[in-house]
Amino acid sequence: MTVSQTFFFGCLSFIIGVAFASFWRIGQIGILAVFICGIFLVSVFWSRKQIAAAGALFLCAAFGLWVYEAAERTHADNELQKFYGEDVIFQAKVVKEPIVRANNTQVTVKPDFVSSGKILITFDPAEKLSYGDRVVLTGTLREPESFDDFDYAAFLAKDGVYALMEKPGVEIKERGAYEHAGERAMAAIFNLKAEFREVLEKHLSPRFSSVMVEMLLGEKYVMGEGLAQDLNVTGLRHIIAISGAHIAILTMYLMPLLIWLGLWRQQAFYVTLALVVFYVVLTGLQPSAVRSGLMGGMFLLGQHVGRQYVALRALIFAATAMLLLNPFLLARDVGFQLSFLAVLGMIVLLPTVLSFLPKKIPASLSLGGPARELLAMTLAAQVFTLPILIWDFGQVSLVSVITNILIVPVIPLLMGLGFLLMIGGLLHPVGFLLAFPVGVLVQYILWVVDFFADLPFAAAHTENFPLFWLILFYTFVAFFWWKFRKKQESLVQW
Fold first, then answer.
1. Splitting the chain (494 residues) into consecutive groups of 10 residues, what average pLDDT does each group show?
2. Which of 413, 435, 410, 445 is nearest to 199 (CA)?
């Protein structure tokens, strides 16, 4: 193997190690056994390059196992657990943008009395706190508990949150206690984001604005539970949530549009990349948005250089870097799973899916965009994300292919008009003009969602989906892709 291939498979082995540790208790003895096996193969069979390379992969897998186990120990030994059930008074700082819901506001704070670990605070909606505020809190710390087969404690732990506190007493010590330029920049982004949200809510009806706020600004929980459930039933949740597939599809429109406007391909690539960065920043640099932007950027890179294997290697490297920083993402973050698998599906299955589609598909189906490529991307992403959707949400949409064909083509246009509305809406006459086409497109999306969600056969429930079938599905897809790739004379070259 070349150096590039060795590095790629080393990263892949690291991810496999993290995956095994995420789902099965390996323990230090197991990690040591894998490590010793790798050392043995490398040292004894050094002259036989293939066996030595296999030993190096064992070492990479052992490193992945160790990274996850080390993170687990940090979680188990967190300092906040000593105070569970205790009444405490402490100073803390708001370290994330508050999440405002209809019935409460959730704020993540970093307490001063521990060196690591954060606390998730639930307030009444009337309580107004902002990023960077220093506060004194009085209340009872509570340990996160699992419910309804959902490991809530593990979900919070992936972000370093180890305790909860409900409706504490609050005293604001200092507004905007920013310690460095980075925090001041984040505060400015959050302020701009709040202004954009106000524009959307002013010019659109509450139901329409909730869709646009979540789609463009990445704010969760602003939609009603009914609409969120209908999006899940129809297989359209990904069009609202920021994901790698979402950003990849957006770039498919931007590149041809910018070239049509007169830019060279190289210029169009950098402008598109800059717009993706702007989109991620606009969400407040949420971890989910950063991951989605990074993974969507990997697909854009592959499209730019014309070789999807470059995108595949870059995607695996990006996933390795993210898991190295936070190994809990792989098993505990659905957004990471869906973004990674959707982009992976686009990279490895796009040529295969394109070969099965008619050579000509009317561009009118995608509002003038690359209809055939867009449909192929959507189907490739759906194939790879379907099992995870079944595994995590316990249901499979039976109408998702149809609804995605009807909805995905309008998303780039809607997002473009939405961005113009947010910016132009600061000038009131322009805002009212732009609100009309945005409203028409959102109305069309909601009509499709409502119509298909009401069908009795829209979704099938799949409770207790076995992990074995999940692994078997991806093994089958990998085998099918490998056979087809071999038959087509290595469509993806190494």
1. 78 93 86 91 81 88 93 83 90 89 86 89 83 92 81 84 91 88 86 90 91 86 80 84 71 78 85 83 72 73 66 83 89 82 82 74 50 76 81 80 84 85 82 89 95 90 69 74 59 44
2. 435
So what's the pLDDT on residue 331?
A: 83
Q: Are strands 459-461 and 169-174 parallel, antiparallel or unpaired?
A: unpaired
What is the rounded radius of gyration, in angstroms, for the C-alpha atoms of the chain? 24
**Per-residue pLDDT, 484:** 62
> pTM for the full model?
0.78
3-state secondary structure the chain: CCHHHHHHHHHHHHHHHHHHHHHCCCHHHHHHHHHHHHHHHHHHCCCCHHHHHHHHHHHHHHHHHHHHHHHHHHHHCCHHHHHCCCEEEEEEEECCCCEECCCCEEEEEEECCCCCCEEEEEECCCCCCCCCCEEEEEEECECCCCECCECHHHHHHCCCEEEEEECCEEEEEECCCCCCHHHHHHHHHHHHHHHHHHHHHHHCCHHHHHHHHHHHHCCCCCCCHHHHHHHHHCCCHHHHCCCHHHHHHHHHHHHHHHHHCCCCHHHHHHHHHHHHHHHHHHCCCCHHHHHHHHHHHHHHHHHHHCCHHHHHHHHHHHHHHHHHHCCCHHHHCHHHHHHHHHHHHHHHHHHHHHHHCCCCCCHHHHCCCCHHHHHHHHHHHHHHHHHHHHHHHCEEECCHHHHHHHHHHHHHHHHHHHHHHHHHCCCHHHHHHHHHHHHHHHHHHHHHHHHHHCCCCCEEECCCCCHHHHHHHHHHHHHHHHHHHHHCCCCCCC
Query: Who contacts 222 (Cβ-Cβ below 8 Å, separation ≥6)?
Result: 210, 213, 214
Per the listing, tokens 């990279």 go with 347
Dist. CA 407–CA 212, nearest whole Å? 15
Cα 492–chain centre separation: 26
CA distance 493 to 248: 22
CA dist., res. 290 & res. 280, Å (int): 6
**pLDDT value, residue 397:** 85
CATH number of the 80-174 domain? 2.40.50.140
Q: Are 143 and 94 in contact (CB under 8 A)?
A: no
Predicted confidence at residue 370, as pLDDT, reads: 60
10 Å CB burial of residue 95 (0-12, 13-18, 19+) is middle
Domain boundaries, the chain: 3-76, 80-174, 198-487
